[in-house]
Each structure stands twice: as structure tokens, then as C-alpha cells.
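task queued by scheduler; priority normal; single chain, no ligands, no partner chains; default sampling; output format set to C-alpha cells
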Amino acid sequence: MTFMKLSPSSVDAPHSRAHASVERAIADFRAGRPVWLVDGDQAALVIGVEAIDTRMASWLNGLTESCRLVLSAPRLRHAGLARTAPGTIPLPIVEPKRVEQLSVSSDVRIDVPVGCASLFDQVAIELARLALVLPAVIVAPGAADATSLDHLLRVNAADVRDYRQSRTRSLRIVGRAPVPLEKAGQCEFVVFRGGEGMRDQVAVIVGTPDKNKPVSIRLHSACLTGDLFGSLKCDCGDQLRHTVEWMASHGGGVLLYLDQEGRGNGISNKIRAYELQSQGFDTYDADEILGFELDQRHFDFAAEMLRQIGVTRVRILTNNPQKIEAMKRAGLDIADEQRVIGRSTAENKRYLASKRDRAGHFIDLAAPVARDQD
């Protein structure tokens, strides 16, 4: 096994330091630790609302009297405000119950004026999204006695803002091996590291596709509940297994298994959304309550994965028009499109209908199950 040899100059490269600081900030944010967000001479402590308990609120109240809560546009729309950008709510006193009611409760009522979020506030929301926590953040600008808080991580706002795009360019293969699969025969798993949050992404090369012809591909976002446990709330597991079987019997192909649980919101927020769905909300209304847009996923790094394994002309197997347009924007030649149909169950009919009606997915609920088709 050969490992990359790093020279001092490569370790100290400016872009490497920027990436490292953002990745550490993502880890601290997920762990519930405040992070210094810095933009020129402007600096503030930012912390996700999930970390706000009595102890953290007391600590913040002792630091400053000028905290503000930054909420995403979908969350504000759920509260009845016509917003297309994040907004801010002043918090003279940080109270955990009020923060929870404003940022998570399904029956939210905002009784104070909502300000316009600055670019600084929007970067704070982006950090929360990268960390896969709720997109609601408390910002404490000009916190008192900053010298006593030097132990907290500092991250440049511009580095956070540019992180997604820069990480796409740094995607690399870190391992590959043959893995025979049931009903598909010989396959190869190729593991990439990079993309968002430095999470590992997998390309499953089914059979030996002819790269001189359009290669069948599918972009499949990980679904723990459906792929592994056979959840009846979605059709993800059916789509995953059927696609691999179909590719095996139709000249091979490439399935990209992407770490984008819950339409890019993360497993914890997906389960929160499931709880809201159990109360009667549909999948997109549930995500809006939590502060998410219809779909948080990005697919530019998926196109880079395909290019690195030599695939540029494709037949895309998907029902999602967003994936098709993303691959076109990324420069792939889409020669053909094909639908992937899973089971319609009593438990997932509303979910499938919502994807069709609200996100424009190409879904025919009357169509026969995909595995029964050629």
C-alpha cells in the first residue's frame, strides 16, 4: 500500500489550512461547542440551537446582551412570513424554551420584528448545514472579554462560504476492491473522500460497462431506513437493489452511493421529519418546519466521481429532474434518461405523491413495480 508523502509546503498550503479550519469548525458545531466566526474586523460566537440548554444559555447571557437567533427562510415561511433569505430575531435573554419554540416547534408564532440576515448570519447558517444540524443558529457578536475565549476555534467566514465548491475539486480515490454482489455478480467498490464535510462517497461499478458507449448511472442518496432496514415509508431500498440488478443484466453501469441521508439533511433531521410526518405533515412540510428547503443536496461532486473513473457520457437512471440538470451543468453528456420505479405501499403513497406533485419527480403511482419490468 502506498501513502501520499506530504511535504511541509503542502501541509502549510493556504487552501489546506482553510479546509482544516472549516472541518474542525464542522466537528465543533456538531459537538455543540461555540465557534468564533471571523470576517475582517467582525467576529462573533456562533452556536447551533441544538446545543442550547440551561447551562449554555446561562453562559451566553453572562457574555453579552446582544445575541440574535438566525432562522432559515423555510422556517420563517412556516411561521407565515414571506421570506426567501434567512432572518434574525433579537434575543436580549437566551431562554432555552423560547429558542426551541422559535426554531423547532411546529406551531411557531413570532411576536417580534424579524430583521434581515447579514452575509455573516447566512454563513453561520451554512456552517450549521455543513454540520448536519438544525439550520438555526445563535450569534453573539462582540462577546465580552474575548481574550478568555481564545480556546474556542476561529474560522474565517469566507472559508466556510467557499468550502463546498473547493471540496469538490479536492475529491480523491482512497480505496477500491472487487466486491461480488447477490444478483449482480462481479462489482467493484471505489471509495472517494471529499465532497461535503470530507465524508466518504462510494462508486459501485457493476460488471464491465463499455465506456465508449453511454454508461448507465444512478445517483443514489444513502437511506439507512430504506436501504438497510426495508422501511415502507419510501421506495429507496427497491430503487437501490433493482438498479444494481438491472445494470448487471444490461451491460453494466455505475451506481454512486452518496452520503446524503434525508435529502442532505442528515439522519437526525430525517428522523425528526419522520416524527412530524407521523403527526400528519407531508415530507416537504416536515422539512420546512425544521428549516430546510425542498432538497438540500448538491451533486457537483458526483459528476467529479464519474469523471475520475472515466465516465463522461451517460444514461441516467432517475426520477429526479434535479439530478439530471445537475449532471448537465457539471458537463456530463446525458445521452438518455430512464425511470426507476419502486413499490407503492400504503405507507409511502403520500410520500411518492408529494415528490411528484411538489418536487416534479417523474413518478407514476399506477405503474407496475420496477422489478417486474424488463
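post-processing summary
- The chain has two domains: 8-165, 171-260+297-372.
- The radius of gyration is 22 Å.
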